[in-house]
Amino acid sequence: MTLGDCGGVSATINEVKKQVRKSLGCGMSYFNFRNELHLDYVQYSGTLPLLTSFSACVWFQLASSTTNEQGSILSYCVPGAPFCNTILVWVENSMTMVVYLNDHQHRFSDVPSMDGRSHACIVLSSEDMLLHFYLNGTEQADAVSSNHSVPADGVLILGQDQDGSVDGTNPGAPQEDADRFYGTLEDFHIWRRALNPKEIRDLHAFGCTCPSDAIVTFSESNTIIHGEVVQNWEYPCHPNDS
Ligand SMILES: [Ca+2]
Q1: How far is the CA of 179 from the centre of ligand 1 (A)?
Q2: 41-44 sheet: strands from edge to edge
Q3: pLDDT of residue 224
Q4: How many Å lie between the centroid of ligand 1 and the Cα of residue 200?
Q5: How far is the CA of 163 from the centre of ligand 1 (A)?
């Protein structure tokens, strides 16, 4: 077998893996935020509908840092909204995740360490009016959410917040290095409903199987890379192997 053949076989295997994964409902994406700069972030070019329930899930790994580990996993800015972090999922440190929803802060602290490769889901449910935080397949905490309506047509970004756009007139314009995410994000998805506990357990346990009705899945065609974020669209299936 020649080297060229090896490359061909490898490409075919990757294509098969891609197709298998797609058939299981899991688009694959991998982003490595290597720099601690506001210039590095990932933007979704698609649009989102009005959300009264949603689930946002991602695998993440914080890069080791001598200073701190804080940073924005995702932000969603609706033009005209005050402070323009209509949704913000923020790692404060390896034991604390903070979620802003319509500018209301929900703090989930004293959770098991998020130092290793971890799987997080933020679930807003219009049935119980709660915001739920799951880590590695298990619900850690919930919080009462007073405002359950997330407006449509915002700007979705991974790796930075958007409160640099104070009045929402310039969404998608991160400005602060301190708010960057430093590490890797894999397989980010949003569903327009509250996933049930078993679905989230399975997401964590079987990394390649996803409920097929996600409304946001990053792909090469809907992703705008800013700065030097490394992207990989053929990242292998990674179930709970950290
Ligand atoms: Ca900011």
Answers
A1: 5
A2: 104-108, 96-101, 87-93, 71-77, 155-158, 41-44, 223-226
A3: 96
A4: 30
A5: 5
Distance 40 CA to ligand 1 centre (A): 13
Q: What angle do CA 173, 124, 155 make, to 5 degrees?
A: 20
Q: What is the CA 219 to chain-centroid distance, rounded?
A: 13
Give the best-scoring range by mean pLDDT among 1-10, 13-22, 170-179, 197-206: 197-206
Distance 164 CA to ligand 1 centre (A): 5
Q: Where is pLDDT greater, at 222 or 147?
A: 222
Nearest to 188, CA basis, from 38, 44, 8, 82: 44
pTM > 0.90:
no
Q: Domain 27-232: state its class.
A: mainly beta
Query: H/E/C letters for each residue in 63-123?
Result: CCCCCCCCEEEEEEECCCCHHHCCEEEEEEECCEEEEEECCEEEEECCCCCCCCCEEEEEE
For 55, what's the count of Cα atoms within 13 Å in the CB-facing half-sphere? 22
Domain ranges of the chain: 27-232
pLDDT value of residue 4: 47
127 CA → ligand 1 middle, Å: 31
